[in-house]
Write a structure and sequence with these properties.
single chain, TIM Barrel, 8-stranded parallel sheet, globular, binds pyridoxal-5'-phosphate
Length: about 220
């Protein structure tokens, strides 16, 4: 009997399907396994299957569980996908390989200072509030050109643009909007797409997808 596909294999198959439909190559899409709220025991099977790219949304939670895992899997990469407070910049720079939530001048200043102090360059995505929602982080689309200029001025590596579209409505127009903003501003990376919509995001140009539930099951 054939073995049932693991969630990781299923997600890879979905990525391959979306790539085929849009004439893209699966190698061009980085799958970030979002392990927030899940403990080391839940993360281990993915590491054992060879997966190495993970996302967390809180600095403190990541500090609690990742140092021990990184000791055993030193080539694992950790991306911070959640909102970041400026006073946590040092800790974020110390632990993470990439930050997806750079969205305001005060955080840019704090991150540059933290990176200088650590002698380490951490690539950052600029998060865009594509739905212009009050409660959501992200730079407003109208402020993006100015903010990108400020980021480029500092010389920190710009990884791309990131978005979390409004909940409960078709995300495709928001993904297309983010792709257009990236093209208009000469930015390459696109961090977009979660469990419910990553095939759509891939078809619209995502280079980084952030998938939690489809890999780990629902969060408690
Ligand atoms: C939790 C989270 C995800 C993953 O969401 P799922 O729906 O579980 O795939 C992606 N991006 C961000 C910013 C998140 O906080």
């Amino acid at each position: 009997m054939e073995k049932a596909a693991t969630p990781l294999e299923q997600v890879h198959a979905e990525i391959a399907k979306a790539c085929k439909a849009s004439r893209r190559e699966p190698e061009d899409i980085a799958l970030i396994a979002v392990s927030k709220t899940h403990d080391a025991a839940a993360i281990e099977p993915l590491l054992a299957q060879g997966h190495r790219l993970f996302g967390e949304n809180r600095v403190q939670e990541a500090q609690g569980k990742w140092p021990a895992l990184l000791e055993r899997y030193p080539d694992a990469q950790l991306h911070l996908i959640g909102q970041l407070q400026s006073n946590k910049a040092d800790e974020a720079v110390a632990l993470f390989d990439c930050i997806h939530s750079l969205d305001r001048p005060s955080l840019l200043t704090a991150l540059v200072k933290a990176m200088d102090k650590a002698g380490k360059r951490v690539p950052c995505f600029v998060q865009v509030n594509v739905g212009e929602e009050d409660q959501k982080g992200g730079c407003l689309p109208k402020d993006l050109p100015g903010f990108l200029a400020a980021v480029r001025d500092t010389g920190i590596p710009l990884a791309g643009l990131m978005c979390i579209p409004p909940f409960d409505i078709e995300p495709a127009p928001f993904f297309a909007f983010l792709a257009k903003l990236a093209a208009d501003n000469g930015v390459n990376g696109l961090s977009m797409g979660m469990s419910g919509d990553y095939p759509t995001a891939v078809m619209l140009g995502a280079t980084h997808i952030r998938v939690g539930t489809a890999l780990f099951g629902t969060r408690g």
